[in-house]
UniProtKB/TrEMBL annotation:
UniProt-listed Pfam families: DUF5753, HTH_31
Origin superkingdom: Bacteria
InterPro entries reported in the protein's UniProt record: Cro/C1-type_HTH (IPR001387), DUF5753 (IPR043917), Lambda_DNA-bd_dom_sf (IPR010982)
Signal peptide bounds: none
Domain HTH cro/C1-type: 18-72
Lineage, opening ranks: Bacteria, Bacillati, Actinomycetota, Actinomycetes, Kitasatosporales
Protein name per its UniProtKB record: Transcriptional regulator with XRE-family HTH domain
Annotated Gene3D superfamilies: lambda repressor-like DNA-binding domains
Amino acid sequence: MTSNVGPTVRRRRLGQELRRLRQEKGMTAEEVAEELMVSQSKISRLENGRRSISQRDVRDLCRTYKVEDKALVDSLMQMAKESRQQGWWNAFGDVPYSVYIGFETDAASLRVYEPQVLPGLLQTPEYAEAVISGALPEAPQDQIAQRVQVRLRRQERITDPLSPLRLWAVVDEAAMRRVVGNSKIMSDQLDYLVRMSHEPHVTVQALPFDMGSHPGMSGQFTILEFSDESDTSVVYLEGVTSDLYLEKLSDVQSYSMMYEHLRAQALNADQSRQFITEVAQEHARRHEEGAAGEADAAD
């Protein structure tokens, strides 16, 4: 129970253990909440790992469940203490998707489908800034700069020489053709995407328009998998004001099946590099034509 993981996954493991103890006791979350004189939602949040768990919470729950194994109680108390430690992202202030970053930081592999933008872990700084500026048109510049820095810090998992994150990304053609920032930014971004796709732990597949309808038309999703078998996979769905994390086995299996269909319909790795390179060249030509037009106008 005390492996080297971050606070987000540690809270999740602790919550799962507390849920197991409650179920073994044959109590409902409502009954526990009533006995401890707290809200039922608090018990649910503690068990799903979405809220920090204090040592006092663990002590009270263990008393309620009449846990007599002192070693187990001590271990849970230690997990609660360690789960309240701050992750690296806390140094950047209030990060709205900190729960996801915590999962991503401890994940062994990610399977990503992106229909509108290129994967955040494979973005250049210029593209990232243009994406974030467009998504948050009323945000002050310092907030945009902060989010860019967080995104670049997340990318260190890809280049980690000791334990690089395994990334598999299926990217819709729309994300490659949408001009984010300008054509030069897009050309450089797509060239970078091709370079990164040559890394042994990174796979990028393009999903062209002419492939027609496909299972991912409902939107973006990410499947996070962990090296410890006790940490079940998580499906992440990004929202505007809140995000959704699916952990039920049936949900994970459904999205995994969707992803297999997406991979089957997408171009293979070599074909994808060629396709992305061609789109990058189109953006580069537009940039050159625009620069030439501006020069002629200046003359």
